[in-house]
Write a structure and sequence with these properties.
Number of strands of chain B: 8
Radius of gyration of chain B: 22 Å
Number of helices of chain B: 4
Largest sheet of chain B: 5 strands, antiparallel
Structural class of chain A: mainly alpha
Oligomer: heterodimer
Largest sheet of chain A: none
Low-confidence stretches of chain B: 42-49, 72-89, 167-171
Low-confidence stretches of chain A: 95-108
CATH topology of one domain in chain B: Immunoglobulin-like
CATH architecture of one domain in chain B: Sandwich
Mean pLDDT of chain A: 84
Shape of chain A: elongated
CATH class of one domain in chain B: Mainly Beta
Mean pLDDT of chain B: 73
CATH superfamily of one domain in chain B: Immunoglobulins
Distance between the termini of chain B: 71 Å
Strand content of chain A: under 5%
Strand content of chain B: 15-25%
Helix content of chain B: 25-40%
Number of helices of chain A: 9
């Protein structure tokens, strides 16, 4: 089933074949984990949000109107879960994620420098307003177009452009402070 | 910005224990059944049909009736032969599957003979015009269950074939008996 389209897998699950759902989990797990980690700032919360998104998707699978685009539908659920969890955790401290594997593989700069740079990015990201962080991640990290972003978030294109612009300005400001310090 | 994006685009890997946790949670939820899908398929709904498409559909049914007659004759001759040959030389037989689906964009045959895999290349039906889709594909000797998958999402039993209780999912698929033509 690994090579089957989302729609075929969804149809199988709807026919009662629960175990086939694992193919969808494997297909979207890592990509969407990245978004959740950046959005929530720590792996534990991100995994909880992602697991919650998968189980909600399973429960509501019959309401997925376009099974061929299951991935986009799941992403929409995850975005909402991240919003809810982000609001719930509120003042809880973010723990910054450093991908140690990637650091070891990167030989361009001294690992310590790269680690510090990454930590500063995470810290700056954390200081963005949640809606700006969400828009920035969808545009620059997930590389979505504004129309798709609008469908996923329910926010108008003009508002999204404004959020992305403000997020970029704020990131430049925060990171230039670090570099000039 | 591109430097920041590149840093944040680095892949993240979750280990397989995550999959196990999700599947564990999913297994505790009520299992989907085909009855839900079946009820959606059988719920009455309004359908707008233009005179042109209605005419095409009628023509397709006429074509299908002719093809069905030919196939029926073939089926009779096949089922008249021994059903379960123990011959080691037994080869899969070529079987023609036909479905009238004027609005479909894609039709595939799935069954226990292809692992219920709608992406299997040999079982993709071709549009023959007038809403008639067909494919001739190998099926091993014996009893089999099968369905059509329309547009990758809608499962339909063959309206011209007998139904068989599907032990896996508890509802009907279509049934076919393939026997050696020799």
């Amino acid at each position: 089933m690994e090579g089957s389209s989302d729609a075929v897998i969804v149809a199988r699950v709807l026919r009662g074949d629960v175990e086939v759902f694992r193919v969808l989990v494997e297909r979207y797990r890592d990509r969407y984990a990245r978004y959740a980690i950046h959005m929530l700032g720590n792996r534990e919360d991100a995994e909880e949000a992602l697991q919650d998104a998968f189980t909600r998707a399973y429960r509501s699978l019959a309401r997925c109107e376009d099974p061929e685009r299951f991935g986009a539908w799941l992403f929409r659920i995850l975005i909402n879960r991240c919003r809810t969890m982000g609001a719930r955790r509120g003042r809880r401290a973010r723990t910054f994620v450093v991908d140690e594997g990637a650091l070891l593989e990167a030989a361009v700069e001294h690992p310590a420098d790269r680690g510090a740079w990454r930590e500063e990015i995470d810290r700056a990201l954390d200081r963005l307003r949640p809606e700006q962080r969400e828009a920035f991640l969808l545009k620059y990290v997930e590389e979505l177009g504004y129309d798709e972003m609008s469908r996923l978030t329910g926010v108008g294109v003009s508002a999204l452009k404004m959020r992305v612009m403000r997020a970029c300005d704020r990131l430049r400001e925060l990171l230039s402070e670090v570099q000039s310090a | 910005m591109s430097r920041i994006a590149r840093e944040l685009q680095k892949p993240v890997r979750l280990d397989s224990s995550f999959d196990s946790r999700v599947m564990g949670a999913v297994r505790k939820l009520p299992k989907h059944s085909r009855f839900g899908l079946w009820s959606r398929l059988t719920t009455p709904r309004s359908v707008m049909v233009s005179p042109l498409s209605w005419g095409l559909a009628a023509a397709a049914v006429a074509v299908f009736a002719v093809m069905g007659t030919v196939n029926l004759a073939g089926d009779v001759s096949r089922t008249a032969a021994p059903l379960f040959s123990s011959s080691a030389k037994a080869q899969p037989q070529r079987v023609q599957f036909v479905l009238v689906a004027p609005d479909a964009k894609k039709v595939a045959v799935v069954g226990d003979f292809n692992g219920w895999d709608a992406s299997h290349a040999a079982y993709q039906a071709q549009h023959r015009g007038g809403g008639v889709w067909s494919v001739t594909a190998p099926v091993p000797l014996g009893h089999h269950r099968y369905s059509f998958v329309v547009d990758d999402s809608l499962w339909m039993p063959d309206p011209t074939a007998p139904r068989a209780t599907d032990n896996d999912f508890g509802v009907a698929n279509s049934a076919i008996v393939v026997s050696n033509q020799e």
